[in-house]
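Lab notes, practical 5.
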Amino acid sequence: MSRPKSVSGSLSCWNPRSVMSDKQQSGRRRTKANRLNRRGDRRKRRQDKPFWRGLRSVSRILGLIVFVLVCTFSWILVHDGLTQSKVFAASTVDIQGRIRLERDEILDLAGIEAGVNILSLNLRHCRERLLAHPWIQSAEIGRELPGRIEIRIKEHVAVAVIDLRQPLLLNAEGEVFKTLEASDIPVSPEGVPEISGIRSEDVFPQDDRKTLVYQSMMALLTALEETDLASQVPEILLDRDVGALLKLEGTRLTIKLGFGNYGKKLKRLKDVMAYLQKKESLAAVQTIDLNRVNRVVLEPQSENGRG
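Output from the prediction step:
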């Protein structure tokens, strides 16, 4: 058998495969591919057996557990390092909005100790502790690295004491926020009026509808603040038939205001009081009737001097 020549005409290295026909070479390649396919099929069938499937699942689960444990342990180390570091010790605690409550009382309520690590504080828990105090209406607490804590509170402002079998404190929003106790006195430096004639259904209605008496009470309290007369009215009686009746501080006067237009009526009352004081005849008057805005009726004291 003669050896093949290269294209250039020179002799090339002889290779037995080069003299094989294309058909023979293709058959050998198919045989080799079949053997590889059979090996792959055997491996696949072995891996598809329940034992191998279970082993793969267990391996994945163990790997996941190890990963979670490593992450958890790392987080614990980082957390402990940050929350115990003196770098983040509280150096400044700023408290805003306090009126009645003392600074130390607020810190004790929030559970904030001197030099506490600010990252160790549960701010939500601190806020809930503050809101548990009956005089605190709202509270916000925040921190600023490396060592600043800011507390912002809003205290209830009592505008009246209402009598519902026990004295209750009423705020400017018309909400009862606590029972009056000895420690609450004085309720306000200027004093607040005591209101009688209120019923439970006026303050705690079954639905959102406000009664006429409740609406009259809130309108009257607002008008008293606007006319600077709140500190001069120690008592208010809300009569369901005749409306609001006031007692003025230092006098035996009874002021009849009726229902509505309290702002205008109180301004008229100030003018009438100034006139009576100027005439030195205030002691002779028992009742000032301002039921109608444009009319003032003065009732003199009785002969025995009783109102």
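Observations recorded by the TA: The chain has a mean pLDDT of 82. The two ends are 150 Å apart (CA to CA).
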